Amino acid sequence: MVETFDVIVLGGGAAGLMCAIEAGKRGRRVAVLEHADRCGKKILISGSGRCNFTNLHCRPEDFISANPHFAKSALARYTPADVIALVEKHGIRYHEKTLGQLFCDGSSREILQMLEAECQAANVEVFVGTKVLEVAHTDEFIVRTASAEFRSPALVVASGGLSIPKMGATSLGYDLARQFGLKIHPPRPALVPLLLDAEDRKRFCDLAGVSSEVIASCEGAKFREKMLITHRGLSGPAILQISSYWQPPAPVLIDLVPEKKVTSAFEDAQTPRNLKTMNAAVREFLPHRLADRWLELDAPSSFTNPALADLERRAHSWEIHPAGTEGYEKAEVTAGGVDTDELSAKSMESRRVPGLFFIGEVVDVTGHLGGFNFQWAWASGAAAGRAL
Ligand SMILES: Cc1cc2nc3c(=O)[nH]c(=O)nc-3n(C[C@H](O)[C@H](O)[C@H](O)COP(=O)(O)OP(=O)(O)OC[C@H]3O[C@@H](n4cnc5c(N)ncnc54)[C@H](O)[C@@H]3O)c2cc1C
User: Who lines ligand 1 at CB under 6 A?
Assistant: First the structure.
């Protein structure tokens, strides 16, 4: 059986559905091919079931890419205000949780239902359970699946990254980029917990569950948020954010007591200089179990002014050398991907292969934690959909 369309979209996630809606609204006959038994599985599990669908303070600086300018055009043409207008059109109630992050009051399901309703209104045909076996290119694109052959003059690759394989992630997008000769930046897990090395694991991981506000920094990036000790390493928003910048063998620096001075008590000459007072001082700024452990492992050699200054310095710059990350099983996104130099910033179309488009997470644009990855999916999807 051969099916012919104006546009074939590979992948029915956030970016693919948005692209299909925009192209469908322009009268294009659009097919979405999705290998899972339903579209948008990641939308359903996002934001702990409440989908952090955008961020009010979305700026180009919130995205990581080898070309930090690439995302600007698409982001400027489909903004958080556009997403909010769509969400409100569908009567979805939402709230700002923190730092501009917008979440559904109810459930992520509402966002997926909104996209499915828009697809239906735009006459988009969605084929679920449809695994792509092969893509060929003549004067049109030919997509072969187990049950049919789909043909179209335009092919949009929206198959996402490698994160969470059990949700249906595959390497299709990267494989197609290679097949068509497009450069890719090696994919890597991002927004992912870090593993401590064996020594630090022994020293700290029995404190799993302890969390504290820190500044985590690496490669010039800095995030002040919560850090959480886990059974194998570190997590929490500060660590997830910095993980997107970390690549071995770079160290990650952690300021355990941002803008605080743990040794300030000793500026008073009356304060006795001993371990007991020191412990009380550190406990003021850190969770007690972490404070106790910190001093136990790294007690000052004396209480002289230089020794106290050294302790202060170490509290602000705990240097960790992660043994790795928790990998794609736990990574919220995949950094790296199709080199943006290969794509038009206006339409996401390949410069080498006219009619071939890449959108969403498969492209080398990765958002910070906080609704930015969906904003990129919507914006890049809309950019391609409006160009088709
Ligand atoms: C647990 C978790 C929570 C998250 N929470 C948030 C959040 O709250 N806010 C936020 O901004 N971001 C969040 N993200 C990130 C966000 O989900 C992604 O960045 C976004 O979904 C990317 O959209 P996409 O359309 O590019 O890819 P995807 O949503 O991954 O969609 C790709 C689609 O392609 C399909 N596909 C893959 N391979 C094939 C193939 N071979 N043939 C056919 N179909 C294929 C997949 O099944 C999938 O449906 C979260 C991610 C995870 C894992």
Answer: 10-16, 33-36, 39, 41-42, 45-47, 51-52, 131-132, 158-160, 163-164, 168, 170, 172, 332-333, 360-361, 371-374, 377
